[in-house]
Amino acid sequence: LGLRFPEEYGGRGLGWSEEVVAMSELGVLGGSLPCLYSLVSIVGEALHVFGTPEQKDRWLRPALEGKLTVAEALTEPRGGSDFFGATTTARRDGDVYVLNGQKRFIVGAEGADYFLVYARTNPDASSRESLSAFIVEKGPEVEVQHVYGLLGTRGGGAGRVYFRDVCVPRENLIGREHGGAELFYQMMIPERMTSAAGALGAARAALEIAARYSNQRKAFGQKIRAFEGVSFKVAESITLLD
Fold first, then answer.
1. 226 and 167 belong to one structural domain
2. N or C: which end of the chain has fewer CB atoms below 10 A?
3. Residues in domain Acyl-CoA oxidase/dehydrogenase middle (predicted)?
């Protein structure tokens, strides 16, 4: 975990090249593994770039050491992954924010110890200046429902997350208040990089299975790899993957 994060917080101090290679190899083993690993990279990015030293010690280090499990709560029922369409709210009340709303299809929700949650803190402002990001720890006011019957990545522990009058301490705000957009754009870098790398690994595994099957399956007295309709597709797939 945390290949590209500083050693002082439990990372390995490596670069993006090493992380992409690792994610690709995890993708060979299945789609769920890179999905879960990517959460550490995504949430870790937010904490590393925008978090205070205290926040890094409290949440980043344990995540990189595998002591805490994290999840990113972005997608909502009405807006999908439309960041600026989020309807979850966080109302300031003294030294806490009172958070209400729900998120859906949240990978890793089932086993998460804490969530990176985007919520609307200023409904009267423009979309860019109305959202903030918080670390919300799992508790009685945070309900997680597992989502069954997904097409793939079923080991990712995806779920619905309901926040009902969750009191989030002010010190759990990541970055500045109403500055969630800045954090979101930064977070998209590891999200896209890790997702693409994991997909490449899964594609390589699928291609190896297809090529192996074409060397075993026989039709009309010969292996189906001998038919151009099959061999050309395998060859083209290898070219595209490279």
1. no
2. C
3. 72-166
